[in-house]
Amino acid sequence: MKNIKIFGSIPAIVTPFKKNGDLDLPALEKVVQYQLDGGVDAIVVAGSTGEAATLNDEEYVTVVKTVVKKVAGKVPVIAGAGSNDTKKAVNLSLLAKSVGADALLHVTPCYNKPTPNGLVLHFKEIANAVDLPIIIYNVPGRTGSNVMPSTIIRIAREVPSVIAVKEASGSLNQMMEIINEVEKNRPKDFAVLSGDDALTLPLISVGGKGCISVVCNEVPKLFSDMIHFALEGNSKSLREAKKLHYQMLPLMNINFIESNPIPVKAVMSMMGFIENSLRLPLTILEDKNKPAVERVLKDLNLI
Length: 303
Prior knowledge:
Blueprint: E1 8-11, H1 25-37, E2 43-45, H2 57-71, E3 77-80, H3 86-98, E4 103-107, H4 116-129, E5 134-138, H5 140-143, H6 149-158, E6 162-167, H7 172-182, E7 191-194, H8 200-205, E8 210-213, H9 220-232, H10 235-254, H11 262-270, H12 290-299
Parallel strand pairs: 1-8, 2-3, 3-4, 4-5, 5-6, 6-7, 7-8
């Protein structure tokens, strides 16, 4: 298994589409380069922000392969490969590995409502089939089921290739429960990453290791600087991190004025990186919300 460390500023990048719905690979490469120039520590491709649910297998392979080639080993590439069908999750994982992904992001299965035992077996099956590091993605707002800290820790203990969790429960207390177990060295070196941009700084202050982020698409340098300052941990660095946190907070919040990735795609379009195109059932940002988004972008000198 690849020996990589998951930490820091990790954008979950958008998947650019043309107006006709086809993949826009030159725009994807442009987005990736913007992230690399911003000093990110890894890149997630084909996650929720990347509209992975609407990619067929051929498109999925193309997107992951394009990102891997553009990154060229500068940072780890983490491929979203989750499914509520374990066999499909295994298949996506094998496809991601075949085109050079360094690690996998697996959302906990939605709709089926697996028990803790089922979740453990789900991750064991993936790990047995694909020797890549795995990040659990707990996002109750999308899956309808919150995976409790005890289950996260159990998976991490019983499945050694599970090395991190993207925690998007919105509960800092829940995240701290996981960190408390990790800091007892059970399991060793397990990373707790924020799945909510606005909770990244608070989470790092209590032992978190970074964030898999939406806002990093738009402001990779600002977000990376904030995280790196926060991880340094001295009083001067924390003051700088706090300043950057509050500078970006309006953008972090406006990114969820509608379902992600609707706002971030509108922003990236306004900034000239991509066309403002999504796949149904997602639609473009409503006209009534555009003025609020534009105000935030002007305040940050992004447009």
